Each structure stands twice: as C-alpha cells, then as structure tokens.
C-alpha cells in the first residue's frame, strides 16, 4: 500500500514553512505536489515525502515565480514504529541534530572546508505531528548509490574522508560546548533501549544461524556457534558500544551505511561530493562504531577484504588533519591506536554484517517487516537471509570472524 499524504499537509502549511525558513512574508504558495520520497523498504524509521512547490515572492514592485523541492520527514503514524521511536527518542534526536547541532558543527568546519554535512533544515516541530522539513538534495544532483552492488573505492574513500571531517568537527564542537553532546547518549546498541530491540537483533542472528546451517561450503561449527550467540547478540553488541571514560569519543552518525548517504557525480559518473542523511541514531561514542558499521554494510565485497587498511587510513588522515586545523585540544589518536579501538569493538562489525547487511543486499522487490522481526515470539521468517548475494558474502566473512574469536560466547 502506497504511503498516503498527511491530511494537514497543504499549500497553506508549506507556505508557513517557507515564510519562516526564508524570513520572507511575501512568499505565496500557489500549488504543491506530494509523493513518497523513498522506495518501499528503503526507509524504516520515518515516513518521507517529496514536495514539489510552486510559489512566488515579492521583489520590489514585481513578483517572481519560483519552484522548489522539499523533503518532509514525519514520525511514523503506525503504532509499532511510533512507539519504538518515542521510547528510544531517536526521532527527537534527528530534529535536534538537524536544527541545532549540525549547523553549529558546520559553522566550525566552514572556516576551512566548503563540504556540506547535511541538507539544510527549514523547520522542525516536536509536538504531534512530529516532523522536519529539509531542502531536497536531488535538484542539486545528489542521489543514492545502488545499495545492492556495494560501494566501489571512489565512493568509499569519499564517504570516509567526510566521516573523518564530521567526527573532527564534533570533537571541536564538544570542546567549545562540553554539555552540547551530552544529550546524544543512546545509540542503536544500548541497554536502555526497548526490549523489542534486543529481540530483533537476537532473532536476526538466529535467522542467520538457521540459514547458514544449509550452506555446505561453511564449516558446520560456525552455524552452531551462531545459534548459541543468538541468545546474547544484543548484550554483546551493547558491550562493544559501551563508552568508557578514557575513550577517544566523537559524535557518531550512528547509522552510517550506504542508504544514509548521497553522492553527486561528475560527467564521467565519478562521485565528487558526499553528504550525510538520517541522523536519528547519532550519539557520542567511539569512532569505531561508525567505521565498523560502514565496513560491515557498505563496501563491495572485494573492497571490504582487499582495501580495508587503505580505507581506514583515508579516514584517519582526514580526522587527524581536520582536528589539527581546528586546533583541537584533544589528542589525535595514532593510526595504531585507531586500529586498537577497532579491535576492541570488533563485534560491532559482526552485528552490522549479521543484522543490517542482509537488508542492504536484499534484491529489489523483497521487503522486510521490522515489526515482525521484533515480535515477542522471535519466529519471523526473514527473506533477507536467503539472498544469494548475502550467502556469497557471509560464506567468505564468517570464517574470518570465527578465526578472530568473535563468534565465541
């Protein structure tokens, strides 16, 4: 069933938003056209609409006609997702990030970088209906990469370069305002998240265990370990994400995978700009979280195996050079120290590849019902684990995880 446009979303409401965003009371909206902004199955934690707006504004004695495209992100109205997002506070996190924190970090970075972190936030409303209006990035040439293919080297290097920039900016921001990041303390893996979250992660690992038992190319001890691990998956994930006082910490994007970034391309279709989208799970923590989540979900399989160190060095160079330019007081971790951070939290990548990656590479036309994954009985038959691409990737990577001891309880 196609996403229905909210009844309150009309030309009058959009006019109010634009007048406030542009500080221009002369704006008059004549027409709007609303349609879903994402394909079914590509967005799980908000309802998104693309709004084509026709309007005019006064300039001297004349009125100029203009067109503009906006994105509306709305707190889901179905009972399950609305309750989950209210209990975790994730949707409120995005409103705070878009309206306050990201503009402030962007201002810090603007002293030496023209790179944009996110779309411009035009309007937020915390009370029901909870929503945020953003500028649409598509007219500027930004688009999503094809998630099923995995990102090639050019895409990966650009994404990790910008991740280093964002993380460094967050360090400088935290030094300027030590209390500013305190509100962002709960990520995807946190002991205070609703019980359904734990059920979902454990159920996913159980699905992987049961499906991988049918793969003759895999040593049978691995599915056996996965089945035992499925009872403790979320608990071990929370341990991997735990913030310790002596940690080097940044503001993590929190959901840094291929569908939460957009790229702009040159005439040869080589990516030249990258921008972040979806900041609902942003939180203070080790940069290892964003890095391991990205590595476990987004590069093509060959790049994941063959170019891991090069990708991490690109990130580290960006982080270190940006922190130096911003004159951060916090000591920049060495590359060896970064590698140690990743080693200590390596189970985070196991989580990413076992829970998120199957959805990333799921063939078009198939969808996953997250409300059923989180069901109390934990018996959802998840089609994502039967995908050929996922089997090919995991048959290669599970033995590596096993050799590192990551599948042991």
TrEMBL record:
Signal peptide: none annotated. Residues 132-325 form the CHK kinase-like domain. This is Uncharacterized protein LOC107221733 isoform X1. Gene3D superfamilies: 3.90.1200.10. Transmembrane segments: none annotated. It comes from the Eukaryota. PANTHER family: CHK KINASE-LIKE DOMAIN-CONTAINING PROTEIN-RELATED (PTHR11012:SF56), PROTEIN KINASE-LIKE DOMAIN-CONTAINING (PTHR11012).
